[in-house]
Write a structure and sequence with these properties.
Blueprint (H helix, E strand, L loop, with lengths): L18 H30 L4 H21 L7 H21 L1 E3 L2 E7 L2 E3 L1 H18 L8 H19 L3 H18 L5 H19 L1 H11 L8 H13 L24 H34 L3 H25 L17 H19 L6
Antiparallel strand pairs: 1-2, 2-3
Helix pairs in contact: 1-2, 1-10, 2-12, 3-4, 3-5, 4-5, 4-6, 4-11, 4-12, 5-6, 5-7, 6-7, 6-11, 7-8, 9-10, 10-11, 10-12, 11-12
Length: about 375
């Protein structure tokens, strides 16, 4: 074989993962850590007298995530078929426990405590739903042709959507969006998606009406100047506007100095715009587009439907989450409290995101040769 020494013709080359995708992920990891430190140093100094407080916690979670990504990428993704249903059932149990004994932070009950550690089961639920639906759809004998068969798949994820959506509507929307994308990929007909879109609209409307604060967010979105809770949105827009084309320079943001509350979380994109300008923000969005393109390649060249749907589900997750985060920061949609993948602060988020990247790399490794 080409690239092997003479006399080793019988040696079989070890399958390789998608190098381009792996490089993109590593770029995001490095950039995310740099921006997190730049954004969180002030808050860390004020709250914990340690400028590197958030950085060190994120570095620990990222290190675990990279190790997880490597391990998962070396395991043939077919192994996860038998784990798909148990993983989904575990996600239901964990999400139910959040409602019963979960910890609250900033008014949201989204965490489960494990001694000194805590994590968000909703992040695990995203991965579980991708695996579960990929397994279910690929093992369904009849193709998804009718509206009923399409609804049947969506109904399967409604329990987790309902449990997660009780305290985390944005993540529930992402999970529902992943389900729709996977059905869309597997379905030979597009007409029924009109009905599905209507069902989704009704579902979101019900969740908005159940809690008064969600309706209040709509009012704040329309006129943030008139509400005290619109302060974060306005400060984020100020940050974006003050960055201009080239930005104020890395580490030189003014809005992160207490003006944008918890800037290292949902609003970190506004600080990227302020410090790196339109050019820097555009580069990050372009990098996300390149990542999505690689997911398309991996999905298209997967040797079976299960692998193709895994890659498509991860694509949907990343795409929806990036769109929602950027839309919120720019006040294009109401505030949903969603993080920017790989960049926003959040140990659970980056851990499971990197685990997902390992799944995508596994599909590329054990699929056909990638271009």
């Amino acid at each position: 074989m080409s690239g092997w020494p003479k006399g080793s013709k019988d040696t079989v080359s070890e399958p390789r993962a998608d190098d381009t995708l792996a490089i993109i992920v590593l770029i995001f990891v490095v950039f995310g850590m740099i921006m997190l430190y730049s954004t969180s140093a002030y808050n860390g100094s004020v709250k914990f007298e340690d400028a590197g407080y958030y950085f060190k916690k994120q570095l620990f979670a990222t290190s675990l995530g990279l190790a997880l990504m490597y391990i998962v990428s070396r395991i043939d993704y077919h192994y996860w078929e038998k784990m798909a249903l148990p993983a989904y059932l575990v996600s239901l149990v964990l999400s139910a426990l959040v409602l019963l004994i979960g910890d609250s932070y900033n008014g949201s009950k989204r965490w489960l405590g494990l001694g000194p550690l805590s994590f968000q089961p909703a992040e695990f639920a995203k991965v579980a739903v991708i695996l579960f639906l990929a397994w279910y759809i690929s093992n369904t004998k009849k193709k998804i042709k009718s509206i009923w068969s399409l609804f049947k798949v969506i109904i399967l994820v409604l329990p987790i959507v309902g449990l997660v959506g009780t305290n985390n509507l944005s993540t529930a929307i992402i999970i529902l969006g992943i389900a729709v994308i996977l059905v869309f990929v597997a379905s030979p007909s597009y007409i029924q998606f009109i009905a599905l879109g209507g069902l989704g609209t009704v579902f979101v409307g019900i969740f908005l009406a159940v809690e008064q604060y969600r309706l209040e967010r709509l009012l704040i979105w329309k006129n943030p100047e008139a509400y005290e809770k619109g302060y974060q949105t306005l400060q984020g827009l100020y940050a974006i506007g003050s960055g201009g084309l080239f930005g104020t320079g890395l580490g030189k943001s003014m809005q992160k100095l207490g003006f944008v509350p918890e800037a290292q979380n949902d609003m970190i994109f506004s600080i990227i715009c302020e410090e790196l300008g339109l050019i820097g923000a555009g580069f990050i969005l372009l990098l996300f587009l390149l990542m999505i393109w690689r997911f398309l390649i991996v999905s298209h060249k997967a040797p079976d439907l299960f692998g193709s749907l895994i890659a498509a589900g991860i694509l949907g997750h990343i795409a929806i989450q990036v769109i929602l985060n950027v839309a919120v920061v720019t006040n294009t949609i109401p505030n949903t409290g969603i993080t920017l993948p790989f960049i926003s602060y959040g140990g659970t988020s980056v851990l499971f995101l990197l685990g997902e990247m390992g799944l995508a790399l596994s599909v590329s490794r054990y699929g056909k040769n990638q271009s």
